[in-house]
Amino acid sequence: MKKMVLVISLLFILSVVFAQASDLFISEYIEGGSNNKAVEIFNGTGNSVDLSDYQIWKIANGGSWPEYSLTLSGNLADGDVFVIYNSSSVAGISVEGDITWTQANWNGNDAVGLAKNLESTWTLIDAVGEDGVDPGSGWNVAGTTNGTVNHTLVRKSTITTGNTDWTVSSGTNQTDSEWIVYPQDTFDYLGEHTMGGTPLTATPVMAPSGGIYTSTQSVTITCETVASTIYYTTDGSEPDDTSSEYTTALEISSNTTLKAIAYASGFDPSNIAAEEYIFASSVSTITELRNGTIGEAYQLTGEAILTFQQSYRNQKYIQDSGAAILIDDNDENITTVYNRYDGITGIIGTLGEYGGMLQFIPTEDSGVATSTGNVLIPAVITFADLTTSESFEAYEAQLVTIEDVTFTPIETDFANGTVYEISDITGIYSFRTTFYSVDYIGELIPTAVFDLTGILNSRSDGNYITARDAADLQIFPDITIISPNGGESWEQGSVHDITWSSTLYSTDAEVGLSARYNFGDNTESEYIITEDPISNTGSYSWTIPEDMTLSNDYKIFAEINENAVTTDDLSDDFFSIVETTGPTVTVTSPNGGEEWEQDSTHDITWDTTIFTVNAQVGIAVEYPGVDDEILLTPEPILNTGTYSWDIPADFAINNTYKIKIGVYENEDEVYDLSDDFFSVIEPVVVPDPGDVIITEIMQNPGTVGDSNGEYFELYNTTDGVIDINGWIVCDAGSNTATIDNGGPLIIYSNSYLVLGNDIDPLTNGDYTCDYQYSGFYLANGDDEVIIKIGEVIIDAVYYDGGPLFPDPTGASMELDPNHMNSVDNDDGANWYTAYTTYGDGDFGTPGSANPGLVGSLDTPTNVVISHDGTTVTITWDAVTGANSYNIYSSDTPDGTYATEGAVDTNSWSKAEASTKKFYKVEASTDAVPE
Fold first, then answer.
1. Following DSSP, what letter does each residue of 746-780 receive, concatenated?
2. Which tens digit of pLDDT belongs to each residue from 801-835?
3. CA-CA distances (angstroms) from residue 41 to 28, 54, 98, 693, 716?
4. Which H or E run includes 221?
5. In angstroms, rounded to a whole number, what is the distance separating the alpha carbons of residues 915 and 891?
C-alpha cells in the first residue's frame, strides 16, 4: 500500500475537513501497452478500512457482473491507496503495486468494478465501464473516443464517492466527466491520490490531435475554463507560466511534441496536455518500406494489392511487384471494406515487428480501393528457397506457389493453430493453420500430391506457409485402393467388398477393376473383374469364382476416368485367394477391448460363410474361472449377423468376458469366440464440478520441445466411471480443443488420465499420453487450464508463472496429494515442482499418483498428553506421508526443547515423575534411527 498525502491550501482547510469519502472508490485505471494494466483503490473515509469486505470485479467483452472476482485482504489506512496489477507490468506499475491478479488483462472493452459486502450480499459500488453488450473497442471518456483503450484514467480530486452510473461518471467532455484522460503508459499518478482542495483548470485540448501526417498542420489549443491563459512548449519540455503564451494557431510541419498547460484565477494549474505530431516519410514500394526503420512512420504512395484479410486484428496482407507486408490493424483504423485483389494506395502507418514478422501498423483509413479485380500470379518457388532467414525474408508475407507437395500422412482433420509437416521434392517444411476458421478447417488433410498456394508467415517459434482457403490446395484427381490392400486371405466362392476412395472424381466417373498376380517373375497375369466400367461408388461386391486361380500374390488394380482424365492405383501389398474351407463363423463385435456399461444395449455381430440366413444361431458369454456359460439366446435365432443384447443392470462387472457364437445348418456346426476380452463396466456417471480435477501440469519440458512434451493430468475423485469424450479443454483466451476420441475416453474411479500435444513416446519425452489434443497449448509463464462440459466448468487451474505457483523448466507442477480437490488446486501454495524423473530425463509422474512435498508434512493434530503419576503418555493423529515422529521436551514453554526420542507410531510413553514439562511432537519423512 502506498501512502497518499493530502495537498490542501490553508484558504480551503475548513471545506477539506468535511470533504471525506463515504466509502472506498476507484481512483485510477490503467490500460497501457502489452501487460501494463492496473487499477487503484482510494480510502478517503477518515478511518482505516478492512479490505476483506471488498472485491474487484471484471466483465470480459460484455456480460453481467461479475464474470471474475478477486477478494482483497488487509487494512487500508485513511488517505492510502491499494493497487491491483498484472504481474508482467513494467516497473513503473509493479513498484507501486500491492497485489497481482491474473485477470488484470483488460483491453478497453472489459468492465472493471469495485464491490462491497453489504449485509452478506456483494454489491457494486463503483465501476469503469458497465455490464451489458460488448461496447466494441471500448467506452468514451470525457469526450475521448475509446477512452478506456490505451489510456490512463485518473479520478478528479473533486470526486469523493464511487459511481455505478457509467454514463454520468464518464461524462461527455472534460468538464462534466469524473475522470482525467492521460496518454497510454502514463504512470506518474499511480501510488497516491488527491481528494479535495482547489479545483483544477481544465486540461487544454489540441486540434487536430497528435498523429501521423503528411502535410503541415494548423494546430489550435483551447481550454474550457473561462478566462484561462494557455502556455506551451514544442521541444517536449514541461510547460509553465514562463513558457510561450498561446495566442494564435501553430503551424507544425516537422516531428513535434507539443505540450500545453492552462492557468486561471481561483483554480490550480491544469494538468499538462501532450500531443505528438509525426510526419511520415514517403516510400513508393513495399521493398522500400521493408527497408525502413522500426518505429518510424511512412506513407506507401504506390499501389499495393490485397491478397488476404481476416477479422483477427483486422489484418491484411498486401504486395506489389517486388515484395509483401502484413498490415496489423488491431485498433481498426482502416474502416474501408476491401475485397481480395483490390488495389490500395497511400497507406499511412508505422513500421513494427512481432514474432519475427515485419508489420505495417496503420494510423488512419486508407480510403476507397484504387483498382479492383487485379490478377496476381504467385511466385513459384520450392521449400529449398526458404532454408535461411535471409531467403525467407525475401518472400515473407508474399503469396507463393509450391508445386507437387504432400502432407506427411496423418489421418485427421485440419485444426486451428496447428502445425503439419509438408514436403516437396527439395525438402520438408511446416504448414500452419494460422488463419483460423477458414473453409478447410475441419476437413480431412489430403493424402494426394497437390500444388499449394499460400502466404509465408512467421511466429517466434518458426516460419510457416498457410493456405488462405481450400482453393489454395490444388489437389489432383486420384484413386486409392482401400481393400484389399495387403494381407487379406479370401476364399474361392466367397463374397467380399473391394473398396476405394477418390478425389475430384464424381460418382459418375467410370471405374474398371481387375486382379493381377504372378508379380514375382516379372510377369503379370490379370483377371478382369468388371467387364464393363462401373460407377464411382467407392465399393464393389466381388463374388470370387469357385475356380479362381489360387495364389498369394494378388493385387487389385483400379483405373478411373472422367472428362479424359485417367488415374489408377494398385493394392500396396499382396492378398491371397485360397481354397474354400467350409462353413465358418467369425465374431466381429465385441472382439476385444470394448467397454460396455451395465443397463445398456449393444449389438453382438458376426460374419458367416456358406451358412444361409435361416441357419440356427446360439450366443453365450464366457469368462475364465466359470464353468457354466451365460446363455443369451435360450432359443436359437436366425443368422442375421446381429443380436441386440440388453445388458442387465446387475450383470457382474468383469474385464475378461468373451462372446461365444455357435451356428448350425444341414449338420454343419461351427463355433467362434471373441479374439480378446471385453469388459462390462459400471454405468458412466454424469460428473459434477470438481469430480474430475487437474493434478499435474507440464508446461515447459526440457528434453523435448513444448509442442511435443507438454501435458496435463486429470484425476477422477469419484467412485464411478467418467467418460470425458466431448469435453472441452481451453484457457481463458482463444486456445480451445474439443476431445474427440471416436468413442468413450474413460477415467476410472480414483484413477488418472494424461492429455498432451504428442501421443508418441518416441518424440514426447517418453511418457504415456492417453489422448492427443490439438489447438490447445500451455504457456510457459501464466496461463489457464480449464476443463468443461459445454459451458459447465468441471475444474480450472490458473497458474501464474512464479509468484504463487511453481515455474519450473524440465519439470512438471504437481498438486500435493494432501489437497486433491478442486478448491485446493486453485491455490499455488498447494503445488510443488516435481522431483521424480521419467522417460528421457524430465521430472514428473504423468499417469500416476504425485509423491508429495519432500520433507513438508502436516503438523500433528489432536495431541493428547496424560500423566498417571509415574508415566507420561502422548498420543496424536497419524500424519499422511510421515515415516517417524520426533518428541521434544522443555521445563518452560519458551525454553530450549531437548530431544526425547523418535517413534514410528502415533503414540509415545516415558517414565516421568515430574508433571511440569512441556512437549512438542514433529512429523518427519525420515525413518526412525536404528
1. EE-TT-EEEEES---TTTTTS---SEE--S----S
2. 888 999 999 999 999 999 999 999 999 999 999 88
3. 7, 10, 11, 35, 41
4. strand 217-222
5. 10
* Cα gap 552→301, rounded to integer Å: 72
Strand partners, 795: 787
Give the single-character DSSP code of 256.
Answer: E
Q: Where are the alpha helices (DSSP H) in 209-347?
A: 286-290
* Concatenated DSSP letters of 495-552: EEEEEEEEES--TTSEEEEEEEE-TTTT--EEEES-SS-EE--SEEEEE--TTPPPEE
- Count helices and strands (H / E) in the chain: 6, 74
pTM flag (> 0.70):
no
Which pairing describes strands 575-578 and 565-570: parallel, antiparallel, or unpaired? unpaired
Q: 624 with 656: CB under 8 angstroms? A: yes
Q: What's the longest Cα–Cα distance across the chain?
A: 119
Q: What is the spatial distance between Cα 813 and Cα 779, in angstroms, rounded to a whole number?
A: 13
Q: Which three cell numbers stand for residue 386?
A: 526458404
What is the grid cell recorded at 332? 481498426
Residues in contact with 194: Cβ distance below 8 Å, sequence separation at least 6, in sequence order: 4, 6, 7, 157
Report angle CA 681, 685, 691 to the nearest 5 degrees.
120
Segment among 360-364, 625-629, 769-773, 841-845 with least mean pLDDT: 625-629
What 3 state SS string does 159-185 have?
CCCCCCCHHHHHCCCCCCCCEEEECCC
Beta-strand pair 842-843/728-730: unpaired
Residues 342, 350 contacting (CB under 8 angstroms): no
| 3-state class (DSSP) for residue 706 | helix
Q: How many CB atoms lie within 10 A of CB 134?
A: 12
Cα atoms found within 13 Å of the Cα of residue 303, Cβ hemisphere only: 10
Set of cell numbers at residue 328: 496489423
Using CA of residue 921, residue 923, residue 924, residue 928, what is the dihedral sign? positive
Dig out the grid coordinates for 47 from the structure: 478511518
Cα-Cα-Cα-Cα dihedral sign, residues 151, 155, 158, 164:
positive
Alpha helical stretches, state H, 102-226: 166-170
Q: Which residues of 611-630 are buried (b: 16+ CB within 10 A; e: fewer)?
A: beeebbbbbbbbbeeeeeee
Contacts of 492 (CB under 8 A, 6+ apart): 544, 545, 546, 547, 548, 550, 577, 578, 579, 580
CB 811 within 8 A of CB 765: no
Neighbours of 662 (CB within 10 A): 16
Q: Which amino acid is at 512?
A: G
For residue 222, the tally of other CB atoms under 10 A from its CB is 14
How far apart, in Å, are the Cα atoms of 486 and each of 481, 576, 577, 891? 10, 9, 12, 86
C-alpha cell of 622? 464366457
Start-end of H helices in 202-352: 286-290
167, 169, 180, 224, 569 from 176: Cα distances, Å: 11, 8, 10, 11, 78
C-alpha cell at position 682: 459400471
The three state secondary structure string of 29-73 is EEECCCCCEEEEEECCCCCCEEHHHEEEEEECCCECCCCEEEECC
pLDDT band at 926 (very low <50, low <70, confident <90, very high): low
SS3 state of residue 195: coil
Q: Give the 3-state secondary structure of 827-853.
A: CHHHEEECCCEECCCEECCCCCCCCCC
CA distance 185 to 176: 24
Q: What percent of the chain has pLDDT over 90?
A: 73
Please give the radius of gyration of the chain, using alpha carbons only, rounded to the nearest integer.
37
- Cβ(499)–Cβ(575) below 8 Å: no
Paired with 819 in beta bridges are: none
Which amino acid is present at 904?
D
Pairwise CA distance, residues 413 & 470, whole Å: 13
How many whole angstroms separate alpha carbon 351 and alpha carbon 353? 7
What is the mean pLDDT of the segment spanning 609-623?
90
